[in-house]
Amino acid sequence: MIKESSFYSKILLFGEYGIIQDAMGLSIPYNSYQGRFHFSKDMYSESNEHLRTYYTYLSYLDVTHQIIAKLDLEQFKKDIKKGISFDSSIPQGFGVGSSGALVAAIYDKYAVQKIDPENITKSDLSELKKIFGQMESHFHGESSGLDPLICYLNLPVIIKSKEELDTVGLPSQETGQGAIFLLNTNEPGETQPMVQIFMEKMKEQGFRNMVKTELKKYNDECITSFLKGDFIPLFKSLKQLSLVLLQNFSPMIPNQFQSVWKKGIDSGDYYLKLCGSGGGGFILGFTRDYKRAQSQLKGYQLELVQRI
Predict the structure, then answer these.
(1) Which residue, 180, 258, 200, 226, is CA-closest to 17?
(2) Which of 82, 145, 169, 273 is most buried (most C-beta within 10 Å)?
(3) pLDDT tens digits in sequence order for the chain, 308 residues long
(4) What is the CATH number of domain 179-307?
(5) CATH number of the 7-167 domain
(6) Which residues does 155 contact at the CB level (< 8 Å), separation at least 6?
(7) If you ran DSSP here, which 8-state letter would residue 118 be given?
(8) In this structure, are residues 179 and 297 in contact, taking their beta carbons and an 8 Å threshold?
């Protein structure tokens, strides 16, 4: 039997909501969670059912000549009948790419003349992002295609603008006291309602201006400083970014986490930001001193992403 490839989760370090408005974005693979195909003895698992629904969506795109990716849908259909399912530890609705990993796995297994992740060019990246955007829109309505792209490449990707993206090297992981971590809200969030709230708010001129100036400025500064490994300006920009999010994106921050968010800004012990669309799932944290952040956030569930 062929061993199926694993597809890992991802974290959008910077760029949530901003990338919709042409701010920069930075996304990294997160190998603590993963998914892969397997054939189940129990022919009709919940995952198999979901794959049937997804097959119907892809078939519709195919017969209406809208589909961008050339996929062997005949084989996909046969495998569904044989009981294929996607065995995944990636929590759904937590902002770490559960649907992205599934889309990447389907493309990897069924694409005809697939783009090789080992020898990728900039134009391949744009093409893949388009393919994945269409494939993932079944799950969230509109999709940028970025999550499946990260899951497929298993490499960090920088988004410089809507049209320009590239793979990027990260600063060497320090064994310092600082850290990037996830704070678990223990409640899944739903992408579509959150994005709808954002789009409604974008109709207000004041909110639009804030996104184009403050949010974009601090977000882009964070990415530039982070990639240089320049942590003093990074934490200055993080503080401002965390504050902008708290003041303007409160519907995306679960109520019971707003005070702990503010406590981080006031104390400077850690700074929180959205991880994905928000509304639940994980919240992303940055700290200069992980031990101190752990003691300040005692009673909350934290996961270390990487040391900085």
Answers:
(1) 200
(2) 273
(3) 457 899 999 999 999 999 888 899 999 999 999 999 999 877 778 999 999 999 999 999 999 999 999 999 999 999 999 999 999 999 999 999 999 999 999 999 999 999 999 999 989 999 999 999 999 999 977 788 999 999 999 999 999 987 889 999 988 766 789 999 999 999 999 988 998 999 999 999 999 999 999 999 999 999 999 999 999 999 999 999 999 999 999 999 999 999 999 999 999 999 999 999 999 999 999 999 999 999 999 999 999 999 99
(4) 3.30.70.890
(5) 3.30.230.10
(6) 29, 117, 167
(7) G
(8) no
Domain boundaries, the chain: 7-167, 179-307
Structure tokens at 261: 């968010």
Length of the chain measured in residues: 308
d(CA 286, CA 22): 24
